[in-house]
Write a structure and sequence with these properties.
Elements: H1 2-13, H2 17-38, H3 47-50, E1 52-60, H4 69-83, E2 92-96, E3 100-106, H5 111-119, E4 124-134, H6 157-161, H7 175-179, E5 185-188, H8 215-220, H9 230-238, H10 244-249, E6 260-265, E7 272-283, E8 287-295, E9 301-308, H11 310-323, E10 333-337, E11 340-343, E12 346-347, E13 355-359, H12 364-376, E14 382-391, H13 394-422, H14 424-450, H15 457-486, H16 491-523, H17 527-557, H18 561-564, H19 574-577, H20 590-596
Parallel strand pairs: 5-12, 6-11
Antiparallel strand pairs: 1-3, 1-14, 2-3, 4-7, 4-10, 5-13, 6-7, 8-9, 9-13, 10-11
Helix pairs in contact: 2-14, 2-17, 4-12, 13-14, 13-15, 14-15, 14-17, 15-16, 15-17, 16-17
Length: 597
Amino acid sequence: MAAAKKGRRSSASQGYPGRALAVILIALVALTGGIFLSGHKTPRLGIDLAGGVSITLTAKPHQGDVVNKANMDTAVSIINQRVNGLGVSEAEVQTQGSNTIIVDIPKGTNADQAEQQVGTTAQLYFRQVLTELAGTPTAPTPTPSPTKPGATPSGSATPSSTGTPKSTGTPSSTPSNSASPQGRAVSDALKSTTDKAPTPVPTSPASTPGAADTPAPSTTTPAADVSIPADLQAKLDKLDCSDPQQRANASEGTKPTDKVVACGQASGSKDWIKYALGPVLIDGKNVSSASSAFDTQQGNGWVVNLNFDSKGAKQFTSVTGNLAQQQSPNNQFAIDLDGNVVSAPQVSQALPGGSAQISGSFTQQSADDLANVLKYGSLPLAFQISDKTTVSAALGGEQLRGGLIAGAVGLALVVIYLFAYYRGLAGVAIVSLLVSAGLTYTLMCLLGEAIGFALNLPAVCGAIVAIGITADSFIVFFERIRDELREGRSLQPAVARGWPRARRTILVSDFVSFLAAAVLYVVTVGKVRGFAFTLGLTTVLDVVVVFLFTKPLMTILARRLFFSQGHKWSGLDPKSLGVKAPLRRVRRTPSTETKEA
C-alpha cells in the first residue's frame, strides 16, 4: 500500500506541467520585452570584437615614490577596480615592462567615463578653497591691489581682483551660486545635528557626545592661512581652464604643503571654474570607503557617503571644525584629484566620527563617479598618458566569424546526431536548446547595460561550449526514460521514475561545471573572465530549462499516442530499444486447482 500511495503521489505531481511551462515562457517574454524597452537589442561587444581605446600609462617618480614591482602591481589593482567599478566591463589592465601599464577599454556606453578616470590616476587630496573664479583668464585686467599695510591679501585682494564670480561677503546666502559650483554640501551622517545653522562659535564639542578625543583638535586648531601669495594670484588670473593642457599642468611640480591652483566643472554644466587651494589637509589614502546611495529619508536624492580611517577621522574632525568657522568660499572642502577639483562641498559644522555625506545636485552617474574617485583615487605612483590609440575590431570580427561558423557546424552535427539516434525526442531537445538560447541572448543584452558585461571572443567560446553541456542534460534524461522502458514500464511511469534519477545526475554535472566557472572567474583576469562568466551563466540556465521546460514538456508528450505507443519515429520504439513483453501470470481459481487434482 505504501508503494502504491507513493506512486500515486508521484503521478499526481506530474499532473500540472503546464504551470512550469507558463513560468519559463512568461520569463522569456518579460526578458524579451525588457530588451525592447531598454533599447539594447544586441549585447555589448568587447574591445576585440567592437574595437575601443588602448591607453598607455607611464609611471614617473613623484615625491620620492619608487617605481618597483610592488607599487606597479598595486597601481594595476586600483586602476582595474576603478575602470571595472560597475561590474564586468571587460576592460583589461596589465603591466608591460617595468614602468608601463596598458589599459584597453572596449567601445560602449561607459568607455568615455572609464577613459576619463584612467586619465586621472595619480594623487587624491583634500584642500581648503581659498577663492574661486570664472574659468576664463583674468590677466588682461591687472589688479591695482595697492599695498595695504598689514592687510592679508586673502579676503581683500582676491575677491576684489575679480568681483564677478564670488564675493566673500555673503557667508552662505547663495550656496548653489556662489558658495559651491556643484551646489553640494557636506552634512553629518547623523542628521539630527544638522539643525545648528547659526553662525556663533561652532559647537563641535557638543556635537560629539560619545567621542572624547575628537573635540580637542577642532577647538585647538589655529585659524587657517587663507592668504593668496602674489605669484599664485598671477598664476590663477592667467589660468584658462577651458584649455586641456593648462588644466593638466595647473598643479605641476607642486608639493602637498604648497598652495596651488586647480580647475573644476560644475555638475551637469560645461562651464569651468578655477580655484586657489590651500595646502593638503587630508591625504586621499586615508579614505577607507566610499559609496553612492539614494537618500529617501531626508529627500536629498543621490548622495555620496565616505568614511576615513582612524588617522583620517581625527584630521577630518579637526579640519571640518576649522572650516565651519569661516565664510564662503573658505568653508569649502575641495576634493583635488591631480589638479582637478572633483567636488567642492561646503562645511557648516564639525563632523566627528570620520564619516560624512556629500549631498547636492547629484545624478546617479555623477554620484557613482565621485564615490569611485574617493574609493580608488590614490595610487602609490604618479602616471602620465604616453600613448592613446584606437583599436580596430577588424581582426576580432574575422575571428568571431570563424568561431560562429565553427559553432554552427558543431551545432548542425549535434542536431543530425540527435535526429539519427533519438528521432522524435530530438525535437524536444532542439526546442529546449532554442529556449535556452533565447534566455541567454536576452540576459546578455540586459547585463550589458546593468553590469557592463561585454561579449568578447572567449565569452563566445563559453556560449558554444554550453551547447554541449545543455545537450548532455537532455541525453541523460532521455536515456533514463529509455532504461525504464527497457524494464517493461509504459511511457508515463517511465518519465515519472526516470526523472528523479536523471535529476541527480544533471545537478551534479552542472554543479561541477558551475564550480569550475566560478573558480576560473575568481582567479583570472581580462578576457578569460568573459569565458568563465558565460559558462557559469549558461550552466545555471541549463538547470532552469531542464527543470521548467524539458521535463514538463516530456510529461505532456508522454500522454500523446505518438510517444506513448512507441511509434517507430518517436525514438521510443520498443523493438529498437529491445524491450521484451512482460510475463503475464494466469491467476488460477480454486475450482481449476480442484479439477487438476
